[in-house]
């Protein structure tokens, strides 16, 4: 069992985890009703530098050589810079023209996705990944770590609240309703 920075070569195992975390949003981005069709987009961006889904922004949970969890996070102040290459690609390849609402804020380290393989959920892996990312954020000088949780995902919200995240506000993002939670780093 090991939590480590992701490597480019992890893309085959990590991209499906990112898509699993995003669900409907991934399908909206690729304008598909098939979640699987979104995976190649995230495989591509995971391998690139300078975007929100890059391996540079990701930690993975590895067990016996298999990646069973991942978490992606970055400086919230850099959201527009990091998502521009992604949105440009979506426009070119999928004619996706919508500009998503800002999901994070300046001064906040933002956890974009956290995901654990279905057959490994309920073992505390998500919590360990979040705690590792909080430490990572603190090492980078952040005192606030934020994330969004779908209002229809109460079990994830409970996990975040047990870790110490507090609800700040409700936000709309691409037609969905989310709660913005923040953890204050001590």
UniProtKB/TrEMBL annotation:
Residue span, N-acetyltransferase domain: 1-186
SUPFAM superfamilies hit by this protein: Acyl-CoA N-acyltransferases (Nat) (SSF55729)
Record-linked PROSITE patterns: GNAT
Keyword Transferase: yes
Molecular function in Gene Ontology: acyltransferase activity, transferring groups other than amino-acyl groups
Pfam (any one): Acetyltransf_1
Keywords: Acyltransferase, Transferase
Record InterPro entries: Acyl_CoA_acyltransferase, GNAT_dom, YpeA/RimI_acetyltransf
Leader sequence segment: none
UniProt-recorded name of the protein: Acetyltransferase (GNAT) family protein
